[in-house]
Write a structure and sequence with these properties.
Length: about 550
């Protein structure tokens, strides 16, 4: 038995053993009391340990709270702390708005919505509405009738796509089997199936657990080509076609980079490669698995687009796009320039903000590398609009999105839909212990330990994923109604307002530059930044032209 297991069950085991050992004395057997104890004192101690033993047994058998299943008896301390009066908790433990990286208020909202509990708050906002950067949404004098959230969908698939997909505006972002446990994957996919939204596989390929419930999948293809690779780690078209044509797979997403660690490859040590992971990823056991920092199938913007066209054909005409965290701006402009030259366009692009990140990454990468979501979204949206490419390319976004207002804020700036990773992790029980990379997740979400992940009950947590999605979209519908809107597609920059000084607020149409259709095609571009990126971009290389 591991030290971790002994630690987790130590208190429970002690209570059971103490109760059984002292029970004969308490029942009056003519035996000498140990350690000079008196009978009344021993009787009280036996009663306490007996009660705690019963609590521990109940903890192990109940299915709602993963922490208590993994930590019988001592796990109840967390829920005791949660019940402390708010003002005591705020001053002695953690403030409601202290983001680490998600605040207690944010997590509590997700937990409540996932459990179908009331997530309303009393006594007004805790935010400082006069703080610089405070944002809000404008509302209408005559609200619209609330719409059915089930209609909040976006059609993804350009002219070359023969199997377009109707995606929800809110979906599960990329998280791989291996980084998440089997039960976590099962619960997420079960919720996606119940709610009719998609579940991104992450770059770890399609595991059997992604297929159990039949929820819609977006298959993410990373630089390791897991699930569609040759023995030496290159792309295998036959294996890809076999997987991509599954009915559960609705779209293909090429991962160029991710918000948590853009430009950083990865290594899965050989001692962590189980038989399941080996079979799922198509990698051998007994040797380290390397994820390169870049793709071997292409190294130019034109090559990327040709690879997209190839995957679209191999998949039978399903939507194919790519995900990236924006770095050098001219590199994306180079991709857009290659679209014009080749006539090949992706069906979608997912923009991952640097504030995203479920997996472990070097602190320097998490803190100081990559462009934040909103700046990246605005740049990509403007570039595509300015080149008349936006009409057939849908934009998804991910990066710290969990609430209806989070969704509104990115849709108003040009996104078509959004994804959430940590929001859905909270829905299945994550408590933000930040131990995802240690294999010791206390709730069974981010671990391959079979005993720890047993605490995550798929049936219960799958329902919570569904509830969180449904209740978040219900809140979105109510906010849209208050603004006089009926569908998220009607959101525009002027609906979102930011405070820029103590005495002035401006809507996003005033704060940011929004290009007009075709504005970058008419010779001289009005805005110097976009002109400079256009001049630096090359369709045949990601390297910049000399200025």
């Amino acid at each position: 038995m591991s030290l971790s297991l002994l630690y987790r069950y130590a208190v429970f085991a002690f209570c059971v053993l103490f109760t059984l050992v002292t029970l004969p004395f308490v029942l009056g057997y003519p035996l000498d009391l140990p350690f000079g104890a008196t009978l009344p004192r021993l009787w009280m101690m036996n009663l306490v340990t007996a009660i705690l033993s019963v609590v521990g047994i109940f903890d192990l058998l109940q299915k709602r709270h993963a922490v208590r299943r993994n930590y019988p008896v001592i796990g109840n301390i967390r829920y005791l702390v949660e019940s402390i009066r708010p003002e005591i908790r705020q001053y002695l433990l953690e403030g409601d708005r202290e983001a680490l990286p998600f605040s207690r208020a944010q997590r509590s909202m997700v937990y409540a919505r996932a459990k179908k509990e009331n997530s309303d708050k009393a006594f007004g906002t805790l935010l400082d509405v006069y703080e610089h950067g405070y944002e809000f949404m404008t509302h209408a004098m005559v609200p619209a009738k609330p719409s059915d959230p089930g209609t909040f969908r976006v059609r993804i698939g350009g002219p070359e796509c023969s199997q377009p997909y109707e995606a929800s505006v809110f979906n599960i972002s990329a998280m791989s089997f291996g980084s998440l446990s089997a039960n976590a994957i099962r619960a997420l996919n079960k919720g996606a199936k119940l709610g009719g939204f998609y579940h991104d596989t992450g770059e770890g390929s399609i595991s059997p657990y992604h297929l159990e419930s039949g929820g819609d999948l977006v298959w993410e293809i990373g630089s390791g080509y897991f699930g569609c690779r040759t023995a030496d780690g290159h792309f295998n078209p036959e294996r890809f076609a076999e997987q991509a044509r599954r009915s559960e797979v609705k779209m293909i997403e090429i991962k160029l980079s991710q918000g948590a660690k853009p430009g950083h490859g990865g290594i899965l040590p050989k001692h962590k490669i189980s038989k399941e992971i080996s079979e799922t990823r198509g990698i051998p056991m007994g040797q380290d698995c390397i994820s390169p920092s870049s793709h071997s199938s292409f190294n130019t913007p034109v090559g990327l687009l040709q690879f997209i066209a190839r995957l679209r054909e191999l998949s039978g005409g399903k939507p194919v796009g790519f995900k990236l965290c924006i770095g050098h701006p001219w590199e994306f402009t180079a991709i857009a320039k290659a679209m014009l030259e080749t006539g090949i366009t992706p069906d979608f692009i997912v923009i991952d903000g640097k504030e995203g990140g479920t997996g472990a990454a070097p602190s320097e990468f998490s803190d100081h590398l990559g462009v934040p979501l909103r700046e990246a979204l605005l740049f990509v949206h403007n570039t595509l609009v300015g080149l008349n490419l936006r009409e057939h390319i849908r934009l998804g976004v991910s990066g710290k999105i969990i609430s209806a207002f989070d969704i509104i804020s990115v849709l108003a700036m040009g996104a078509d839909w959004c994804n959430s990773a940590r929001g859905f992790m909270f829905a299945i029980g994550c408590i933000q212990s930040q131990s995802c990379h240690t294999n010791q997740c206390p709730t069974g979400v981010a671990t391959q330990d079979p005993i720890r992940q047993r605490a995550l009950v798929v049936e219960d947590k799958g329902e919570r994923v569904y509830n969180f999605h449904r209740n978040t979209l219900h809140a979105l519908a109510e906010m849209l109604s208050a603004a006089g809107l009926e569908h998220p597609a009607q959101l525009a920059p002027h609906h979102l307002v930011r405070r820029i000084s103590d005495t002035e607020v401006r809507n996003y149409a005033q704060v940011h530059v929004f290009l007009k259709p075709g504005e970058m095609l008419g010779g001289k571009i009005q805005y110097e930044f976009y002109q400079r990126m256009w001049d630096m971009a090359r369709a045949d290389s990601f390297a910049a032209n000399p200025e």
